[in-house]
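Hi R.,

Here's the chain you asked about this morning:
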Amino acid sequence: MSLTSTYTLKNGVKIPQVGFGTWQTPDGQVAVDSVKTALAAGYRHIDTAQGYKNEESVGRGIKESGVAREEIFLTTKVWNGNHSYELAKSSIEKSLHELGTDYLDLLLIHWPNPIAFRDNWEEANAETWRAMEEFYEAGKIKAIGVSNFRPHHLDALSKTAKVFPMVNQIFLAPGELMAETVQYARDHEMVIEAYSPLGTGKIFDVPEMKELAQKYNKTIAQVALRWSLQHEFLPLPKSVTPSRIEENTAIFDFELSDADMKIIDGLDGVVGKALDPDTAQF
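And here is the predicted structure, written out as tokens:
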């Protein structure tokens, strides 16, 4: 297993098992340089979003890296204010322009129930998905999926979807396993992506993780990412620090024991819990 090892989506598209996240990465040179550093370190999967407001810089980083576009798996997401058919279509075209590419490898609906559409979220998702399906059928998007969706949101979407989501990107880290949502994804052959796999930094203060890092002669981040992989999640670690970007790639030369996996599984709530998308105030 390596940074270029892949999972296979149910339409046959290959997706690298580890991605480079860009949430909270500032737009501009910081984003450009972090993407270039990640690609130089061997990452071939880059994850961004309209809501991150850094698509143009991510696109520049890809272009300046010298790595061929077809070697990179690129993901972005439709942001909350762009739900509905026409808004989604225009926002997707804008994302393609900002990223400097004529296709996306994966496009996700970022949130299932944003506050602007709370009174008609089911219809808004159905119309957003219809726009995404058109881009998918036209070959401009290789795969489509969702983020932060719970089972009831997916059940609602399935009423009108011609293509069922291939991915669900959710908050998964030691202390937050989201068992029901994960099981639903497995039952429906969806790849499960883990954003904030280091618990937005909170993982570094967990005593049990410090002990395990010492035991395996690894960093806490490496142990957390290895835990994610052994659950067959797809982690998306984010960093803007070159040494940390490199450090987060060294997760393929060790394996956590079953007993230690259970220790980590039992760390309930140590990094906080996923926001409820039906009550989040955005």
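One quick note: The chain has a mean pLDDT of 97.

Cheers,
M.
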